[in-house]
Amino acid sequence: MSLALDELKAVYNAKKAFIISDMSLYRNGVTAVIEKKLDELSVQHFCFFNINTAPDISLIEEAAKAVKLFEPDVIISFGSGYAADTAKLVRVKYEYPETDLCVLSSDFSDIAYREKNFPKLGEKALLVSIADINSNASEVSPYAVFYADGEELYIADYEIMPDMAVIDADFMLDGTKEEIVKAGLSALVRAINALDSQTATEYTDGFVIKAVQGIMQYMPEAVEKGAKESKSFEKLIEALNMAAIAYANTSSIINVDGTAQYLADIIRLSAAESEESCSRYSELSSALGFKGNDDKKLTEKLIGKIEELVSFCGLENKALKCE
To answer: Which of 144, 273, 276, 300 could form a disulfide with 85 if both were Cys (CB 3.0 to 4.6 A apart)?
Structure first.
């Protein structure tokens, strides 16, 4: 983290940083680590720490007003995916104050199919995202989620991706078992979703394979021992971000929270409906070390491995209810 912030001053000549962080991190003094470093670099800073849940439009507008007054040349999100998504949308409002995010959501909810161009960002402020265990991979994704009048809305475009993502396992070692489980299984869902996406490529497949290998190998020990086994934890964090990169470079947007319990059945149904999907699952299964030439049998071995991990995490594998 320190090296990345050094670059803000040495390379980008940053003078004023607006930090968007979670309330819990601020109250526990974690955000102070970043503030202290910015002091050392003689970078003025202001911290907006009202992030507690998924951002709604009123919170984004509140933060945008504070940014307008402070006039930073860098916006730093620190912590959860909520903080990162807020920062992405606040930069849009900072650079284009008249933009209606709700209208923008309807125009830019899918990267693959659109006719309009997203507003060009980066003229006023660099966007830096520093992740923690609850980041939900927002720091490396072109997606942002927010609420307006109780409705969940998405914006999807590579313009809103952070210019710099800082993934430092030291910020994540205090993650609870529940947080590690949620992060790991959410990443597994993202990886499988990216693998079976219509816009998957050999490049995204490569990230998927390495991500799933890492999750399967290192997650059990990271869940059991946490910070006591920092090497496994660090390797797991790398796997989570490879899953996120694959997911970010395919066009699907799904809600990954809670989906892991249905993941085995999703794969089973998808493989039954599509020979191509079955072949792709089979390839992933082989990459995990399973032997054989029968795509269906290899896919079942992959499913068994996923069910085993979900059970290890204390969750029930569930079947989809088809009506």
So the answer is: 144
